[in-house]
Design brief:
The protein is an alpha+beta fold. It has seven helices and four strands, in the order E-H-H-E-H-H-E-H-H-E-H.
Length: 148
């Protein structure tokens, strides 16, 4: 089992889509092991988007992610990052296939509605940025971990 960090961005909160997006991820079979709603500080946003610091859209990313609360989550399953990335869809809305989260709910790249780690290394870094170890709950699925 591997883990992936995902974050529902301010657009999801503003559009009241939190439950719908989480439901889609659960129905796919991803196991939720961490969840919290939070207001991201400027410092945390800058750390989260550090690899984009020199890009012209960095300020816009930070402004958007700090403009309203977000929902930070940790999901678990086999090959979790690759599966969630596929399920979430391409970053650019015009390239996101219908049926993906971005393909169904997103129209502007600069106001993308969901973040998903792009590698196992990024997932570990992002999980550690947003969650304390005790906020990740390892739980046993009474249906068995491979029911889906």
């Amino acid at each position: 089992m591997t883990r992936c960090f995902t974050m529902l961005k301010p657009g999801v909160i503003n559009r009241r889509l939190v439950g719908e997006i989480i439901s889609r991820l659960e129905k796919k079979g991803f196991k939720l092991v961490g969840l919290k709603m939070m207001q991201i500080s400027n410092e945390l946003a800058c750390n989260h988007y550090a690899e984009h610091k020199e890009k012209p859209f960095f300020g816009e990313l930070v402004d958007y992610i700090t403009s309203a609360p977000v929902v930070a989550m940790v999901w678990e399953c086999d090959d979790c990052v690759a599966l969630i990335r596929k399920f979430v869809g391409a970053t650019k809305p015009s390239e996101a296939n219908p049926g993906t989260i971005r393909g169904d709910y997103c129209t502007h790249t600069s106001h993308n509605i969901i973040h998903a780690s792009d590698s196992d290394e990024s997932a570990e870094r992002e999980i550690n940025l947003f969650f304390k170890p005790e906020e990740i709950i390892n739980w046993d699925d009474c249906c068995g971990e491979k029911w889906y």
